[in-house]
Amino acid sequence: VMQCSASLDVLFLLDGSYSIGKGSFERSKHFADKLCDALDIHPDRVRVGMIQFSSSPHLEFPLDSYLTKQEVKERIKRTVFRGGSTETGQALKYILHKGFPGGRNSSVPEVLIIISDGKSQGSTAMPAMQVKERHITVFAVGIKFPRWEELQVLASEPPERHLLFAGDADDAANGLYSTLSDPVCTATAPGCRVESHPCERRTLETVKELAGSYVCWKGSKQPNAVQASLCPFTRWKRVLIKHPSRCFRTVCPDPCDSQPCQNGGTCVPEGLDRYHCLCLLGYGGDTHCAAKLSLGCSVDVLFLLDSSAGVTLEGFLRSKAFLKRFLQAMVGQDSPMSLGVAQYDDNVKVPIELGQHKDTLGLMKSIDALNFSGGRTLTGRALQYIAQHGFRSTPVFADVQEDLPRVVVLLSDSKSQDSVAEAAKYAKDQNIFLIGIGSSFMRAELTMVTGNPQQTIVYSDPQDLFNRMPELQRKICSVGNPEGCQAQSLDLAFAVDASSGAGLQNFLRLRRFVRSSCLHFILSRDVTQIALVTYGSTAHTAFALDTHTSTSALLQAIEQVPFLGHSASAGSALQHVLSDVMTVQKGARPGVNKVVVLLSSGGGMQGAAAPAQQLRHNGILVFVVVIGDTERDVLLRVAGSPNYLVHISSYEELQYYQGLIIERICEEARSPVNLCKPNPCMNQGVCILGPGSYHCKCHGWEGPHCETRVLRGDSPRSPALPAPSHVQWSPRALQHFSRAPQHRRQM
């Protein structure tokens, strides 16, 4: 910002004596380096040279050696401390005799910058006066604890404008620029002005002080006699002396004075009129730290804060601070999210009902008003209450109420004093998505509440909690806008073991697993379709791919799927999926990736390898999840590859593998598609691929998918469909094909 740009010769005179020492000499070099930043070094403008003095002066480099700022600064760094006595007077006489080495012979203003502790071992008054008489401007810069009286003799008039302290390099550079700005350098920048303010010069001086009186022996007038007396005792000590003065500095308007950074951001000036903001996590959406993340998903979110004695006042305040920071970063005026806040101990209160606040300011004030209560930690009771009463608010549009996802975010750092398992199950049965947040020792309980480690956020320390804001945002929006396969088109079928080998309780666990997995997909005719098959000795379709188009209806249908019993036959289940689920007649879409997830207790796998291979041959991925003891070779033959096999020892561990299974399914959803696998043509029609399309070659049938019988007496059409009958691949375009029932043969 402050840079002297004029024709100017600047000579540094560095004290390299032993009284300075090597450490202070390095600080002198640092000051000279910083001062170069205030000088526009150029052959036609500012030139810089350096002399180091101690017992005798030594020319380090003349003014015409280095003509760029970088070269000068690099040479200053290479200067080596010499040591010796402090002969400042001799150094000044050297300048009087030699002039400025490499200078422009007084055709431009000359500035001498002496950096010393001012403890010369000879007289400096006469040579200093002679130097100044030659119209050389002299700055005396103190280093370490200088002798200011001598430095004042060295400096030009007025001394308060020409005395600086190298210990504060930035301040000293400002002082030098302020003095040179008028008339030597160009005028100060617009809006800047030179101001004076009181300051002080500090130094250490050695003074004599009375330490006390001690008994001493003195001679007496009487011969051969001495007498005792009190004698004063003095000692020398070093005292910090302060010399009041005035300093002149250039003051410029700070671009950060208007506090342009929002949401707790720190403003960092860059020159006179520019700045940048250092933003807190979650902010940085623009240069002024606007919210970077956004809850741009349509969900109902209720935050449930633990306010019990176990969490302590400090923990409760931390949860409040996190909640405020999170909502400030995420919630804007146009946010489609509706939110509320509840707190609990023995009792549950909902001080901020769902959708109560439409503006962030009112919401923040209500959060500030939340008070710590400090009762027992009854998390189970709180979850039960919230599931029953927390989402009673009616949305503005009643027609979207059914499908608007409902989320409870539990912030707790204290083990519950009642059971949470049944309450959590009840909440999930009400189609409430649970997310748990707590410190690491709460991991097990929070996972029990959410039913899935992927829905649990644990932090290691308070700062780590605030670092988890983006993760919470993703988890909340994964309900309304799933993290799973996003907008990838997919036909997905679950085949669930409902045999007596699995047992009723384990079947219910598998059913809950399917239910929570479905929340990771966008259910739509154009995106993901889901079918469910259960099997014992035979297989049954609970619902087909095209049965449900809303998440709520799908989840309700899963809850109603019954336990079958009998022995298990995984082979019959996979054969059923191939022939009765993944077909065009039952809603399967040509040109869309297809996946079957087989959830098995391990029984009845012997005959499953052949239908599994048939599914793969038809372009349908088979993903096998087995819980319990079964020979791995048998399972590998069914899965076809270790990549599509998950073998789990117990049902309790199933929830920990959900993320992996979803990820593998989504990888398949993103893979290239063979439009003719499985065969979209009905009634033994042959699928023929074209560039980006296919057509069906029919025999005795007609239509895009050979779905209509050619009636007796009609002339059969050409087996190859004409050009208009070609089916171009597109997730939307492929929804129009006919699902007309087949005509029975007339006898």
From TrEMBL:
InterPro entries from the UniProt entry: ECM_Assembly_Org, EGF, EGF-like_Ca-bd_dom, VWF_A, vWFA_dom_sf
Keywords: Disulfide bond, EGF-like domain, Repeat, Secreted, Signal
Subcellular location: Secreted
Domain VWFA: 9-180, 300-476, 491-665
Disulfide bond in keyword set: yes
Pfam families: EGF, VWA
Keyword tRNA-binding included in the entry's annotation: no
GO CC annotations on file: basement membrane; extracellular space
Superkingdom to which the source organism belongs: Eukaryota
GO biological process: calcium-independent cell-matrix adhesion
Main location: secreted
SUPFAM superfamilies, A to Z: EGF/Laminin, vWA-like
Quaternary data: Forms monomers and multimers.
Protein name from the UniProt record: von Willebrand factor A domain-containing protein 2
Species the sequence originates in: Prunella himalayana
Name of the gene encoding the protein in the UniProt record: Vwa2
